[in-house]
Amino acid sequence: MEMRVVVSPSGGLGGFPDSSYIIDFMKNIYIVILSLLGSLGISLFFYLDDFSLSNSSRPDWRYKDKEISSRLLAIPILLYHNINGRGPFSIDDAVLREQFQLIKEKGMRVVSLHELIGRLEHPKPYREKGVIITFDDGYYSTYSLLVPLAREFRYPVTQFIYCDAVSQRSSRSMTWARLRIMERMGIDVQAHSISHADLTELSRKNDPISRKKLFEEIYLSKRIIELYLGKKVDFFAFPYGRYDLYLVKLASDAGYKRVFSTDYGSNIITRDNFCLRRNHIKSSYSLHYIENLIK
User: Fold this and answer.
1) 0.90 cut: is pTM over it?
2) Contact at 8 Å (CB) between 72 and 123?
3) Are 138 and 291 in contact, with CB atoms under 8 Å apart?
4) What would the pLDDT profile of 164-217 be if each residue is shown by its tens digit?
5) How far apart, in whole angstroms, are the C-alpha atoms of residue 294 and residue 279?
6) Using CA atoms, how far apart are residues 220 and 224, in angstroms rounded to an integer?
7) How distant, in Å, are the alpha carbons of 67, 113, 119, 161, 256 from that of 70?
8) How many whole angstroms separate alpha carbon 51 and alpha carbon 164?
């Protein structure tokens, strides 16, 4: 039987494509498969990435919820002003005593600002509920009424002063000599600007005069207090509690460890915030309200 081999015009065997055609065909299939796999891979990447973004926040929010719900991780800072009982931001000394007594009866520990900063930098829960007490402006009543009360309860208290409120000599106002006595009695004096100006207005102007004024209000107030009291000033409370990111940066550049607003709420110690919240205490607040604020 005779076998006949037929050669096709393309040079291959009759009925079969030549080897180069097969190679090209396989390359095309390979490219198509790679394209499909690439498209599938890209689609999966974006799908999974979007899924992770939409779901990764859930554990974070759950974690933050746990932080907020755990009172041992939250520190409310109370903000007082005058103690003469006149005006919306001034309470009577008898009312202040009741509030101090409430803190004691609830088994809470009054924490100093320096201790809080240490806890923020090395976070771990407190063993008991804590609260921080601060006063703003430097009224004479904080010398005549707060000092004996704080010593009686053994509470560390921080006094933020603005320099223009301090006199050299006066029988019924704050002086540098009285502030030095307060320091020796356990009241920590910190900065509250020079003139108690609204720093956000100066920040918005952003002209040479305003920038010079901001330097004085933030940096120079720190140096003046350090000079008169012979201590390091680490904290700055914004006048009226008003601030913006530029002012926060200026305070950081001036060497402050933390700044303080009047934004209500507790400070979560596992979130090392530079600007901390304070709860403004008004004369209209009942003792029950204060209890709910610190519980």
Assistant:
1) no
2) no
3) no
4) 999 988 888 999 999 999 999 999 999 999 999 999 999 999 999 999 999 999
5) 10
6) 6
7) 5, 20, 15, 33, 29
8) 56
